[in-house]
Fold this protein.
Amino acid sequence: MDFAVAADRTRLAWRSEGYGSPLLLIAGQATALTGWEPIVPELAESFRVIRFDHRGIGKSDEGPSEYLSTREFAADALTVLDAAGVRRAHIYGHSMGGRVAQWLAIDHPDRVGALILAATSAGGFLGKNRDPEATRALTSGDPEQLQPLFFDEDWAAEHSDAVRTFFTARASKPAKRRHFRASKEHDARSSLGTIRAPTLILHGTDDVLTPLDNALVLRELIPHSVLVKIADGRHGFHLDHPETLDWIRRFIARKVPNI
């Protein structure tokens, strides 16, 4: 485990595994770098995989700010890339991490190779077509309520340790509130048309936390982006649908073979 230091002196925990083109993984709200564990070994066969804890999560400091935004989280991601000695990386963001990744591609196009957006939204639209019961489950933070919204039942039963790790990241209640607000208030719709990174949008057809309509908006607003709908995928398909890793590898190899 290494630590990057942000401009406000907040320490950000990060880890690097594997060799090859850098691939930065950006987790969702209140989710630690350990939540990526089920897919890191396979990704590390093709990429130098870099992952980190958002401020206030896992081993990272909370930092002094009472108000956070997805754009500020993007600045933290750049701090991690700098600490890792990486000038340009492919970016893979899940849920809130996908919203953070959008700002990286908008504000720092020279730092982004391929952009992979999983189970995420452009903002503004998020939650308006979400089942109120799903919102209540999300705000409860209760793993028993959240698990069926994220993962296939059989996969969750076979990977109980991974599921437990995913939902039990260290995070204070204030940190969780800051994350939730940052994710909810994200809105990059007016800027997505400036993205030039080859963009792969992955979205589950059965995602009730971020319904599929959100992916259609991203596809419309990001030039030349590609949308792949994951049949029966829920909000955590990035873990329980490993076939998505092949799509990511093929997309990067075709669009940005060298960085």
Summary: The first strand starts at residue 2 and ends at 5. The chain has a mean pLDDT of 93.
